[in-house]
Amino acid sequence: MDETESLNRAIHEEVALFPYDMAWPALFEKERDRLLDLFPDEFLAIEHIGSTAVHGLSAKPIIDILAGVESMHQADDLLEPLCRAKYATSLAYNASLVGRRWLMRWAEGRRTHHLHLMVYGGEEWHRRLAFRNRLRADTELAQRYEKKKRLWAAEFTSDREAYTAAKGDFIKQELKNAS
After folding, report:
1. Which domains does the chain have, with CATH numbers?
2. In what order do the strands lie in the sheet with 101-107?
3. Could you tell me which residues come within 8 angstroms of residue 162 by beta carbon, excluding any fewer than 6 positions away?
């Protein structure tokens, strides 16, 4: 499989959840260290987020990484260098985003990492970390979230956007309930 075919397969892969893998934290650390080596002065912080960051939680086997930058202008300037560093992105998709930029890594026709660039310390930065931290601290919430994700994965197997939107609604409601 050539690189273009691998990328296309990764873009169009179905939503599938896998049992928690003890290797996920190490895969995050390896990629965090690689990013810090490649861009030693660019990131103010790099965090492991998403379900792969919560011990015991089933997830799509994609490591979600939150990288804090000083400004969205800096995030935009990083897109091309990150693409040279084995990431891919969609400029059209990123143009639709407010307050963040998104990239992915892939291998063998599947996504391996999502990289979310955001202003360090901003509202969205804190929201994403708050939800991760709540999942880590509240087993009942993590179990409810996993049950919902399984239902959404079955319902939206071929529609990643709908799956992501359903998760987003759940996250917003849970964070609202916590305030």
Report:
1. 3-178 (3.30.460.10)
2. 45-49, 63-69, 110-119, 101-107
3. 152, 155, 156
Taking the C-alpha atoms of residue 151 and residue 47, their distance in angstroms, rounded to an integer, is 27
Q: How far is CA 71 from the centre of its chain?
A: 19
Tell me how far apart the alpha carbons of residues 159 and 78 are, in angstroms, rounded to a whole number.
28
* Cα 46 from Cα 61, distance rounded (Å): 19
122, 99 in Cβ contact below 8 A?
A: yes
- Which helix (H) or strand (E) element contains residue 81? helix 72-84
d(CA 8, CA 15): 15
pLDDT tens digit string along 98-153? 999 999 998 888 889 999 999 999 999 999 999 999 999 999 999 999 999 999 99
Q: Which is it for the CA torsion 1, 88, 110, 27, positive or negative?
A: positive
